[in-house]
Predict the 3D structure of the following.
Amino acid sequence: MAPTLSISVVVPVFEEEDNLRPLHAEIARALDVLQEPAEVVYVDDGSRDRSLAVLLEIRREDPRVRIVEVAGETVAVH
């Protein structure tokens, strides 16, 4: 059974491809120090740059990451 989450960090994203890796590194360091079950939810609000691609790469590297992709009236959870 998966542990109950203690912390959820929600980050809105729009056209932030260059900032996502440094931001996630800082968030991950802080969560590692806390040593609590946590998730990081990135909400991509229709970015047209590579933000979603970068987020998907980060998700492959960190299982705490969840991605909500909002494109018009469509919402996808990764």
